[in-house]
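step=predict obj=DUF5050 domain-containing protein n=527
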Amino acid sequence: MNTNVNTKKKKKRNQSNYRALLLPFAVVLILIGAVIWNNVSQETKLPDPDWSRSISTPAQSISAEPTVIKKDNQYYAYTHQKDGLQVTTLDEKLNLVSEKKENLALDERANYWTNGKQIAFISRGELILYEDGKQTVVDKDVDLLADAKDRFAYSKGNEVFVYNPFDGESQSIFTAKEKLTELSGHPASQSFILTVGEKVEMEAFYLKEAAGKYSAQSITRYSKTPTDKIYNFRFAEADDQVHFMYTFYSSKQGTKTFKTFYGAAPKDQLTAIDFSNVKLYSSALGYEIENPSYQQLNVENNKPIILFAAKGPISTKKEAGNIYKATLNGDKWEAARISTTSDFSVYPLQVDEKTIAWLKAESVSDYRLYLASKDSEIKSASKEMGKQDIYTATFDAFTAFVVSFIAMTNAFIWVVPSVLFLGILYFVRIDVIEDEKPWAKWTAIGLFIITQLYVIQSLFNNTFYTLAPKYLTFTGSSFIIPMIVSAIALWVMQVARDKDWGLFAQVSYFIGLTVLFELFVVGTYVY
């Protein structure tokens, strides 16, 4: 008879123990799911209302500027590899059509030109034109190559030539006083820009094309020092206006600084260009973006735009080397993030009015081509949740849980009044503890809740209101959320507790649940 009674008591205790474990576990699972869902929402969020999320392609590359051209509603991406060029064809929705490899002995990171049929490149000083599997040496002792709308320019020492593929001939268009340091063109122009001088004085020239002939115009001179230089000269033409840009680099006391300078003038007034420092401001971030790199200059709707790479946030908790597009509105450059890729992105380029491409670092030496689009269908498709989004969101959530333990260290302060109250009561009125008077339990719980409400206010900081979802950041949330969490913990304690639980066990269980739940509700978004 006694054995049956003991067995029934053990079963009741086991059921109680299960409730005490399973109920908090169920609540914690719900809270974890909420955090992961918030992270998924961040992962699938568009970088800007106008642009899709980053779209990966199979095109791989070394760290060298890619080329993407649009022809017959298809995109042809040329990426530089160690043993040639990879040609990746995409349809108008950026889906893969085909890919092939052209085994060409390009100089590493040297520029090349293509019109989709022919490829010009430099190999050990020889300028080679490749077409239909045949290679023809165009010139020798070549240093630099720059592509333009339907032709390319190249330099030999201090002389610049233009090669026109229509007639298959080269012509000399400029002779400088010394060897060229830079030579670049623009895919929408027939003109070029070059710089000479590397040690003391640097000068930039604009080679303007008109009716097949070129005229050189000096646009700026700069006396450099051993710790600074100007480089990466770019230009873009719109009607009779020419826009120019260059990068200023400075290194002082181990600190590297990159600044962008911009100027514009009519084609017939290029002797008086006023270059000004470009301050790239992001409304989404609320501050100026510093140290831009890999800048490209274009014109869109007769307004200059700058594509560039810079470090910045890609979500509430992560940063990356992002691709931005800045538009000149009045005298202010408004920058919007284009990429959603992690790590570091480089070499942005404008493919057409709806498409931007760039390289994203997969490792130190391997890069992959990514694109972003303004096309409404592509934008909608890019927002769909994928396996990688779920994996990243889950990984970030559990990383946040680990970090949140640091945020919850102030929970030790929450328990002090309750512990002191029960400790004093134990020595002064032990009969109250032994008789488990309800007023003692509720007083200890009340002291804990009041202390928590006061101390937890420090966790509801700017970081929390930036990182947390909207349903946690309403007015008065710093008081209402702890009260709701305490109420849930109290309900779980009342449902799960066993009749054999003493006063200390009930209060301790309630405090432990509250701290645990607050860890996932508040602590996750504090750091």
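step=describe
The chain is about 30% helix and 40% strand.
step=end
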